[in-house]
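Cross-posting from the modeling subforum.

Setting up a comparison between two proteins and wanted a second pair of eyes on the formatting. Protein 1 (sequence, then structure tokens):
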Amino acid sequence: MKLVVVSAGLSVPSSTRLLGDRLAAATVARVPGEADVQVVELRDLAVEIAHNFTNGFPGPRLSAALGAVEAADGLIVVTPVFSASYSGLFKSFFDVLDKDALVGKPVLLAATGGSARHSLVLEHALRPLFAYLRATTVPTAVYAASEDWGADGLAERTERAAGELAGLLGVWPPAGAGAGAGAGAGSRSGEAYESGVPSGPEVPSAPGAEAAPGSGAELPPVVPFEQQLAALRP
């Protein structure tokens, strides 16, 4: 199986790339056998994309990236939010892609931004774009605001979206979709987020209530966002 991640992040390291990597890892974990994951960094293709618009011919690196997307079994696309929409670089790449390249292809939509107020960009901008390209988008899209890194919710949305993509890739039921995952799907944390939009604060536990030892309720340590980005530096 070949999975391609298209990242429109501009900085190095990039939270957009980090989100794409997490989604890819969660999807590969559900796919039996070997999975080939390729990352297309649009930042490195910006000049060739612009030249393609003016002369009608893709450069060698852009041609290879377009070929990888066309040959992929599934896509994960991630863009930063600029002016309440996808970035111009992100849109330009899909403008030079053949109009029939994504027909029926499973696509997981994701975006990053500085504020949770932009989370609906997934539904009012990205989903219509890929509907026009006749791709098959997974129901759950993932948005990560700055405050989401290391907080509750992002990991659950990532796992849910990855499971849906794995299902479209023919892995059904997705690995890990047993009783534990099914229980989580009906929990508040699973229902409270659709495309990254929180439904409200959690109801606090009763005073003095504690998780039973060994119940698995212990939370993993939170890694600061700056450390996660620093780990991506070469």
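Protein 2 (same layout):
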Amino acid sequence: MRQAMLTLLLLGAAAAGPAVAVEQDIQHWHNVNGMGRIQPQAPSDDVSSKSQGLWYLEIQPRLSLATARPTVTLMRAALGWEFAKGLTAWAGFGAIPSWDASNSGPGWDVNELRLWQQVQYVEKNGPLQFLWRARLEQRAFAGLDDVGLRARALMRASYDLPVLDRRLALLAWDEPFVGLVGVEGKSAIGFDQNRLFAGGLVRLAPWAWVECGYMNVVLGDPFGPNARMVHVVAVATVLNVL
């Protein structure tokens, strides 16, 4: 509901006239990630009988469809621990190279590095599955000594459809971002962005699936002069061998 209101406000402001300029873009994001146990063991519902150490790897290129140019590529790696069935904690590192299309020559520039920590809980009830995730990010920017701090919270739900052996599912999630410590010229304190996704999921195997749908991203103060909205064709390829 919150994201829908923000979207309507931005669209209304854009239609009202030049008082509030809403910059918009259309992009494609493709998240490829994998996760598993550090020492895999035989399947069991008893967490104590499995290796509790976990690993995670991700690469996520992003492309502006309006300019046909890459924007950034996110690369993340993490180690985690499973405390109970569905409850995990993670700590990881991320690098975010951005595409520099300046006159000096196009190329990639690693302008942000991150440390991040998160707690995640997954619960399944019949065809419904819920996921809650809270993450903290420490953000370091090239050429700057200050380090930003940002919090984000993901709420996700999926519903397995009773067709094709439940290989198809409906999927929706919302994730607000809030800046806790700002860095001048890079990140601000307060509302940072919100991502709202709606789409579907296709299971290729018990440990592999593809998610695809539309994601609406509101960036910056939705009531300010620099509000931005990104319409994203979002795809995720997931390999989960937990």
